[in-house]
Each structure stands twice: as structure tokens, then as C-alpha cells.
Amino acid sequence: MRIALGTVQWGLDYGISNINGIPSDKELRLILSKADQNDISVFDTSSIYGNSELRLGDNYSNKRKIVTKVGELNGDSLKTSLLRSLKRLKSSNIYGYLFHKPEILLNNNYLWEDMKMLKLSGMTKKIGYSVYEPNELEILINKKMIPDIVQIPYSLLDRKFESYLNFLKEKKIEIHVRSIFLQGLYFKKISELGEKFKSLRAAFKELDLIKAKYGFSILDLALGFVKMNKAIDRIIIGVETQEQLCSILNSYSSNLPLKVFEDIRKIKIKDIFILNPVNW
Ligand SMILES: NC(=O)c1ccc[n+]([C@@H]2O[C@H](COP(=O)([O-])OP(=O)(O)OC[C@H]3O[C@@H](n4cnc5c(N)ncnc54)[C@H](OP(=O)(O)O)[C@@H]3O)[C@@H](O)[C@H]2O)c1
């Protein structure tokens, strides 16, 4: 199972149209048991996702592979920051430790050596970073900071990292993708896009035509498009409800005909700036 669960939604009020809000403890337990039943083993969290790490710790299971991330260090050492996360996660070690934002590493290159020491210490099995733009990845790789795990945004219309995937695979780097639903934006109707996203109206129109032509939902298209890229190791998805996870699991088991993706790939986006949620 390549689906992984993102957890910002469990610690912060997040998502473009989040009508559900942060899941209750009861709802979170339902989401986690559904995940366990379906071999979803990887969970993406961060020290800057509110009490998301704490909630994962409260529902600790040694079956889970936790990837957490360091945001700002605020004068602390990387080791101190990881020890804090491990305490919240009620774990002695984790599957992956990533820099949440590339800047922290780009401005403090020595932190990569510190990160490698944490791996050698056994506190984390893998190390890496999360990036937003291809040039950040290029700079880090050129600085010989070769990660075990890299997290990138990737989705139907946001394909800016696609040409890097094979290179990352050759280097045996584990690829985690996020924002496959563009933080929920793909679930919006064109009439709900508003002024900010008007540059995406034409593309959403084409997606509507593809949905009608083949009889698939936007969930099927968004998940199917990412799923068919075999270079991707983990597909990180954010959910607030068990129901959302169930519909994702149902869709994940269906296979879309190749011609659907040929049509999707014909959709050209001029304004790629708007595809990065940082710019919203
Ligand atoms: N820099 C980083 O490292 C970074 C940045 C962003 C995210 N992340 C990680 O990625 C995870 C996923 O977040 P994302 O931004 O990538 O979001 P996403 O997975 O693209 O979209 C998640 C949103 O899609 C909607 N959704 C999910 N399942 C649905 C369903 N079955 N039906 C209808 N709507 C559904 C929900 O939004 P609504 O309920 O609002 O519709 C949900 O909040 C986060 O939890 C976090 O772990 C990491």
C-alpha cells in the first residue's frame, strides 16, 4: 500500500475548504484503525503541526512508520528537536526525520552533518528534506546533501517535479509526494474557485470534461494520476474524516484506462505560481 497519511489536519485547522475541522479523538481513532486495517503504515507529521505528534503518540502503535519534520530550531540543536518529537510520539526512534523547509538547511549547511549523526545514532532510520520548488532540490543535491527521503508536491496539474523523479530513483531516494488534492482545491466546483484561483478555471473546465467523458470522479482522477507513477514510493494524503479515507481506499483499488491520463497531460497550466499553496 503506497498511500501514507498526512497529519497536519489532525493538529491544525488546515485545508482550503475544511468544513470538518480538526478530527475528534473518536474520529481520529476511527481513521487510524481504518488505516491499520488497510496496511497504511507511513504517517507524515511535523513538530510545527500543533499537537499532531502528541495525538500520534497517544495512539502509539509499533506498526507505524513515522516521518516527522523539524521546522524552526529556535536556537535548539537538531538532536534536542528530535528528542522532543520522540517524546511527543512516545517513541525511541522513528522511520524518517526531514527538514520541513529547505531554507533552514540552505542557510545552515552544517545541519546536514548533524542530521547524518542522528541517523548514525539510530534515533531515525532515514533522513531527508521536504521541498516546494525544483531549484531548492537542485541546490541541495548539488551540495551533495543526498537524502534517503525527499518530499515533494505532485498532482494532476502540478507536475513541476516530474522530470526529477527518475534521477531521484537512480540515486535510490525514497520519494514521498503530497498535495495530490492541492489541499482540497480539486474538490471545489469552478463556481467556488473565486478570484484568487481564476487562472485555474480553464484547467478545471478540462478536468470536468474528462470526468464526464470517462465517468470518473475528481478523486479517481487525482489519486489515479499519482498512483500510476511507479517512481513514487508514498502518496501522502490528508483526511479529517474516516469517510474521506474510505472513499480514497475505494478509489485506490480502481484502475483508470491510460487514455484518461493522456487527456489529463494535454491540460497546460500557464500560471504554475498558483499551484504552490505557499503562494495562496
Ligand atoms: N512542507 C511540507 O512538508 C508539507 C506541506 C503541506 C502538506 N504536507 C503534508 O501533506 C499532508 C496532506 O496535506 P496536503 O496539503 O497535501 O493536502 P491534500 O492531501 O492535497 O488534500 C487534503 C484535503 O483534501 C480534502 N479531502 C481529502 N480526502 C477527501 C475526500 N475523500 N473527499 C473530499 N475531500 C477530501 C480535505 O480537504 P477539505 O476537507 O478542506 O475539503 C483534506 O484536507 C499534510 O497532512 C502534511 O502531512 C507537508
Descriptive report:
Helix 1 runs parallel beside helix 10. The radius of gyration is 19 Å and the shape is globular. An eight-stranded parallel barrel has the order 1-2-3-4-5-6-7-8. The chain is 38% helix and 15% strand. It has a single domain, classed as NADP-dependent oxidoreductase domain (TIM Barrel), CATH 3.20.20. Helix 7 links the parallel strand 6 and strand 7. By secondary structure, the chain is of the alpha/beta class. NADP nicotinamide-adenine-dinucleotide phosphate (NAP) binds next to strand 8 and helix 10.
CATH class, please?
A: Alpha Beta
Class from helix and strand fractions = alpha/beta
Average pLDDT value? 95
What strand line-up does the widest sheet have?
1-2-3-4-5-6-7-8
Shape: globular
Please render the helix and strand layout as text.
Blueprint: E1 3-6, H1 25-37, E2 42-44, H2 52-58, E3 65-70, H3 78-88, E4 94-99, H4 102-106, H5 110-120, E5 124-130, H6 134-142, E6 149-153, H7 165-170, E7 174-178, H8 201-214, H9 218-227, E8 234-238, H10 242-252, H11 258-265
Helix pairs in contact: 1-10, 9-10
The structure holds NADP nicotinamide-adenine-dinucleotide phosphate.
